[in-house]
Design goal:
heterodimer; A: alpha/beta; Rossmann fold; seven-stranded mixed β-sheet; 11 helices; 25% strand; globular; B: mainly alpha; MetI-like fold; two-stranded antiparallel sheet; 75% helix; binds adenosine-5'-triphosphate; binds magnesium ion
């Protein structure tokens, strides 16, 4: 299977790759969930992963920060390079990997701690702050960048779990940002949210893409079109097509991609 | 069909009401006898008295003396032994629970859980026997070695063995509490670059703390009500002390001693057993209610 790759709009961007997946195969026991997936992720861009349910988007996303390690019967074969370094090489520091590659989950999962402690969690375990005032500053700037500061600045001691769903998801984004990752993986971050909250998260993704590399799994074509520069289309464990979001949505090369994005899939 | 169902329903209701009636009956009986006791002995001298010496009352040459029924030494002895047992069982039980729930493979877990269940099923008299025959002499010898005097029946021996009895209990309740923490929190913590140990210490255990606390309260209430171990290992004389190397006695031990042998049923000595029983019942009831309340609130927070 050869992935169709449309040319990048700018030739200079082509040279830049932050994550490179090369012939990645993933198995759950005997079941093969990903087949020979090869893709280069560009820095400071949003890459959207789309495709029908069960095609392996989440599985692929979890390869990038080795969260598949936590799944008992899951086996990942193939090369994954982060800035050219093989993340499966023996002796590679997985914990360190996850500080560089943050993750926001489908369902908001704030810790049952205060809003402040949620955001301060990462800086604390990684000893990023010298003293309370520096930590305060990190918490504030993370909440600001996640667009949540104004809503919670007067109740930082309140429980993170008592916020609304959309606020919880922005809290989780703030919590991920606070670790200062270079890459943020988001697995359908809006699927549990209403349209207004979704709109806010999309604005946020749009903002964040200047500083971060974002890989976003989404079922919403509009969301992929609105927020991403590149889109990858998965189908039955294969990466069928990857290219500029504009190209994918206006002139998809693969008939299945076209069928999927125009809603004629299935 | 309808008749059969109604008959079946009748049986179920009957069984349920028997349980309720029995409970009410027991409480009422204890209450009535306790009231009789308090009509003879001033309640304040019972609840605040620091001398427990019911034996005086049966000495013929002191017929006038009613005996001394100060509850405090028994309470202190009970709490002392309970605290010692918790000091053993909480760290051990928690460590086992954390290991089983967060670190062990499912195979190891499958092997260890039955062992814990066996441990939990050992009759407490066996533990008491172990305390009396094995642990107390060891403690005494150890004390002699170190130049401190350890009583043959010390609070320490009773507490340590009771702690061993409580380990599987606390381990199992804490494991349930840890298990109830959703995986999404584990993944959230790991995804932020926590090691497994950091995730466990900073997220999983705090998140399950209410459940663990409830387990500890239930364990305390068991320790307070436990009888066989203390009867065999703790002693009968009521010293008011918090020195774990001395012999102390507990509420349950005194109930046993008061009721052993032939007594008149309106003897204050006999009635005192009911007052003790009532106090014990109230104490454990309160602990259990608090524990259940915590567990309920905790369950709700993850739904
Ligand atoms: N833990 C697991 N054990 C076994 N099979 C799994 C596991 N997780 C996923 N799979 C299987 O792997 C395939 C890909 O799953 P994955 O969750 O990556 O799909 P997805 O594209 O994210 O789907 P969705 O859009 O529904 O979230 C599916 O067929 C799924 O059943
Ligand atoms: Mg998914």
């Amino acid at each position: 299977m050869v992935t169709i790759e449309t040319r990048d709009a700018s030739a200079s961007a082509r040279a830049e790759t932050i994550i490179s997946a090369q012939k990645v195969n993933v198995y759950y026991g005997d079941f093969q969930a990903l087949k020979e997936v090869s893709i280069d992720i560009r820095p400071r861009q949003v890459t959207a992963l789309i495709g029908p349910s069960g095609c392996g988007k989440s599985t692929f996303l979890r390869c990038l920060n080795r969260m598949n390690d936590l799944i008992l019967n899951c086996r990942v074969v193939g090369k994954l390079l982060l800035n050219g370094e093989d993340i499966h090489r023996p002796g590679f520091d997985v914990v360190d990997l996850r500080t560089h590659v943050g993750m926001v989950f489908q369902k908001p999962n704030p810790f049952p701690k205060s809003i402040y402690d949620n955001v301060a969690y990462g800086p604390r375990i990684h000893k990023m702050a010298n003293g309370r005032s520096e930590l305060d500053g990190m918490v504030e700037s993370s909440l600001r960048r996640a667009g949540l500061w104004d809503e919670v600045k007067d109740k930082l001691a309140g429980l993170g779990t008592e916020l609304s769903g959309g606020q919880q998801q922005r809290l989780c984004i703030a919590r991920a940002i606070a670790v200062e990752p270079k890459i943020i993986l988001m697995d359908e971050p809006c699927s549990a949210l209403d349209p207004v909250a979704t709109g806010r998260i999309e604005e946020l993704i749009f903002e964040l893409r200047r500083d971060y590399t974002i890989v976003l799994v989404t079922h919403s074509m509009q969301q992929a079109a609105r927020t991403s520069q590149r889109t990858a289309f998965f189908h039955l464990g294969e990466l069928l097509e990857v290219g500029d979001t504009n190209d994918i949505f206006t002139k998809p090369r693969h008939e299945r991609t076209e069928a999927y994005i125009t809603g004629r899939y299935g | 069909m309808a008749i059969r169902e109604r008959a079946l329903l009748g049986v179920l209701i009957l069984a349920t009401s028997m349980a309720v009636v029995t409970t009410i009956g027991i409480v009422a009986a204890i209450l009535v006898e306790s009231l009789r006791f308090f009509s003879i002995i001033d309640p304040s001298s019972f609840f605040f008295g620091t001398l427990w010496s019911p034996q005086i009352a049966i000495r013929e040459d002191q017929a006038g003396a009613a005996g001394s029924f100060g509850f405090i030494p028994l309470l202190v002895g009970t709490l002392l032994i309970t605290l010692i047992s918790l000091a053993v069982a909480v760290p051990m039980g928690l460590a086992i629970a954390v290991y089983l729930s967060e670190f062990a493979s499912s195979r190891t877990r499958g092997q260890i859980k039955p062992i814990l269940e066996i441990l939990a099923g050992i009759p407490t008299i066996v533990y008491g026997f172990f305390a009396l025959v094995t642990l107390s002499p060891i403690l005494r010898d150890l004390g002699a070695e170190l130049g401190v005097e350890v009583a043959g029946e010390s609070a320490l021996a009773a507490g340590l063995v009771m702690g061993m009895m409580l380990i599987p209990f606390i381990a199992s309740l804490s494991e349930d509490a840890l298990f109830a923490v959703p995986d999404s929190l584990r993944h959230g913590a790991i995804g932020l670059g926590s090691t497994q140990l950091e995730a466990t210490a900073r997220v999983i255990i705090p998140a399950s703390l209410p459940g663990i606390a409830a387990g500890i309260l239930l364990a305390s209430s068991r320790a307070i009500g436990e009888t066989m171990i203390v009867v065999m290992a703790a002693g009968i004389a009521a010293h008011l002390t918090i020195n774990p190397l001395e012999a102390v006695t507990t509420v349950t031990v005194q109930i046993v001693t008061l009721l052993i042998g032939d007594q008149e049923f309106d003897d204050p000595k006999t009635l005192a057993a009911f007052a003790l029983g009532l106090s014990l019942f109230a104490l454990t009831l309160v602990l259990n209610i608090i524990a259940l309340h915590i567990v309920k609130r905790y369950r709700q927070s993850y739904e």
